[in-house]
Specification:
Blueprint lengths: L10 H14 L6 H14 L3 E5 L2 H11 L7 E5 L5 H8 L3 E5 L10 H6 L5 E7 L8 H10 L3 E5 L7 E2 L2 E2 L6 E5 L12 E5 L2 H11 L3 E3 L4 E3 L10 H12 L1 H19 L5 E2 L13 E5 L5 H10 L28 H9 E4 L7 H16 L3
Parallel strand pairs: 2-3, 2-4, 4-5, 5-8
Antiparallel strand pairs: 1-9, 6-7, 8-9, 10-11, 12-13, 13-14
The structure holds pyridoxal-5'-phosphate.
């Protein structure tokens, strides 16, 4: 079976650090977490990086630190992994779902602007599959309406747009280190921001809302335990050392797919040729009338694992409470129904690309 992905983690990259950590007895956040935060802040080009247990908790922490709660509305791209919307609801705020621009996966900023109300506090902009959205446009919209820009850059470590890395735009951003992401720590996440006050609140709330005194702590507000462990951070530091290699490997594989699919009938690749994208996933959109699930099952029968792109949150039962029906956000719904993720990992060879594209073409032809 050709798998969807293969995380590139070598035990040799971490074994010495793991031994040192276990022998030191400092297992929760310590010097490795601080080092990983510094590595990532330096790479992205921001003043602060705050490690967490996942991108979900990173996003939740940002909203909580910004004081977003009941009565507030947060604009969020509808086409995303539902963690993006769940954390808004977890804060007691209302996720206001925004459609994609037609024919692709990126946030439609005109639709976002049309949904702003006096209750809107923040704009959560997703970089789907590591393809940067229009972050300059999102930053302008946020500034003009006094909103916090929260970039969900879960898949976008190493992506850049307009000469600036994802994670380095105004407001705050969240990265994921789940094994299907660009680098992995098993589970893990990171917030990046240039805002000193926000960073201080993020650090406070990450650690129970407790201020350390000479002896013990003082708790001024209700926080969380979203701390990363030293073992995870050691893996994160080792992965950062290989980040350029991993990004280059992903982009090479994506370019091979772009070439092989350039003349294919019935498929478009919204991110084809996107220079600044990470290609966390290589996702294509099947033409109207092609049954995506049938294509995926035919490819499985040919020994190739695929999956959907991601979800139109408005069509998920958890979001029905906000009054949406499947199809209300038509472009996002179309992306949910017609998207297909092909296998991709750093260093995937040309022969695998050929095999996947051959199986895809025959599965599509059967229905075309
Ligand atoms: C866009 C997006 N946001 C958030 C998440 C959640 O990331 P994590 O698993 O690190 O919580 C994901 C995971 O797939 C994602 O794709």
């Amino acid at each position: 079976m050709i798998p969807l992905t293969r995380p590139l983690v070598d035990f040799a990259d971490v074994v010495e650090d793991f031994r040192r950590i276990v022998e030191s007895g400092t297992l929760t956040s310590g010097a490795y977490v601080a080092g990983f935060e510094a590595d990532l802040a330096d790479y992205v080009g921001v003043a602060h990086a705050i490690a967490t247990t996942s991108a979900t908790t990173a996003l939740h922490l940002v909203l909580a630190a910004a004081g977003i709660g009941p009565g507030d509305e947060v604009l969020v791209s509808d086409f995303t992994f539902p963690a993006s919307g769940n954390v808004i609801a977890q804060c007691g705020a209302r996720p206001v779902l925004v459609d994609c621009a037609p024919g692709g996966f990126l946030l439609d900023l005109e639709d976002a602007a049309a949904r702003i109300t006096p209750r809107t506090r923040a704009l959560m902009a997703i970089d789907p599959f590591g393809q940067p959205c229009d972050l300059a446009g999102a930053a302008t919209l946020a500034r003009d309406h006094g909103l916090l820009l929260v970039e969900d850059a879960a898949c976008a470590l190493g992506a850049h747009v307009d000469g600036r890395r994802c994670g380095a735009w105004p407001g705050a951003a969240a990265f994921s280190f789940h094994p299907r992401k660009i680098i992995t720590t098993g589970e893990g996440g990171m917030v990046t921001t240039d805002d000193d006050d926000l960073a201080a609140r993020l650090r406070l709330l990450r650690n129970h809302g407790g201020m350390r005194g000479d002896v013990g702590m003082r708790f001024d507000e209700h926080g969380f335990n979203y701390r990363m462990s030293e073992l995870q951070a050691a893996m994160g530091r080792a992965q950062m050392r290989r980040l350029d290699e991993m990004l280059a490997g992903r982009r090479t594989a994506a370019a091979a797919y772009d070439r092989a699919l350039a003349a294919a009938d019935g498929v478009t690749v919204p991110a084809a040729g996107s220079a600044g994208a990470t290609f966390q996933s290589y996702v294509l959109l099947l033409a109207d009338g092609i049954d995506r699930d049938a294509v995926s099952l035919a490819m499985r029968a040919a020994g190739i694992e695929t999956t959907i792109g991601t979800y139109a949150m408005h069509a998920q039962p958890a979001f029905a409470a906000y009054g949406h029906r499947p199809g209300d956000l038509p472009h996002s719904h179309r992306a949910q129904e017609g998207s297909l993720t092909l296998p991709l990992w750093p260093g995937m060879g040309a022969a695998v690309v050929e095999e996947v594209v051959a199986a895809l073409s025959s599965a599509v032809e059967e229905q075309w």
